[in-house]
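Supplementary Methods, section 5.1.

A reviewer requested that the exact input to the structure prediction be made available. We therefore reproduce it here, unchanged from the version used in the analyses.
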Amino acid sequence: MRACDASPVSRFTAGSVRRMSPQVPLHQDYPIPASRMSHTIGGVDPVRSAHAAMFEAAWDDFTRACATTVAPEATYQAWLAHFVIERLDLLRVVREVDFGARHLGPVAVQYFTGHNLMVDLLILREPVVNLPRRAALAQKNLPDGTPNPRSGLARLADFSVITELKVSATQLGGLDYAEVVRDFRKLSAILDAAEAQYPDRKLPAAYVGVFGNRDRPRFNFDLLESKIRRASIRPDVKLLKFEATRDTA
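The structure derived from this sequence is encoded token-by-token as follows.
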């Protein structure tokens, strides 16, 4: 039996998966780095393009299999990783790689002061895993290089995809919109800082997956998208969304 294949526990059937890349206007209260003004993440990067397509296919697999389940969020993260591994291979998929918030620039620091930013799920360009936890190293330098060997930012070039996952069924009160926007802001801040400090290195594709598998309170994706626009998130941080539909039969 594949992961998440379970008997239904609610009156839902899987809804369609709609993807969007927020069309985000520049916000006058949010200083946008000059690099982002001419940012072209698309470029020629066949590895990133191929892995992003595989991740989106794995997202489809995950949402179809797990739509009627209720479990802790960490379980959904493991299930999503399972489907990504099925599309790629074991040593390309890692979880909870950390980046130092204090190295992300003055705008990001005000939102993430004192935190190590853990990214839920990441895909490596090559199946070579050397990702010691940034905050717990005894060695003098991390494998991140100059100008900031302890930021964790240079190794972002080793990844083709970085993702965050939010699940509505895991919380009785439903998803907090501010928490979801914070995940968008996290990935946006990491990409901004990496682009500023290592402008010649490749950036990964970035996704926040919102798995709306809860009936009440219903998660309002229109409201989320308006909040994303007001937060001036990078337009290359994409939303993958799933909304289960009520079975009226």
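The chain has a mean pLDDT of 77. These observations are discussed further in the main text.
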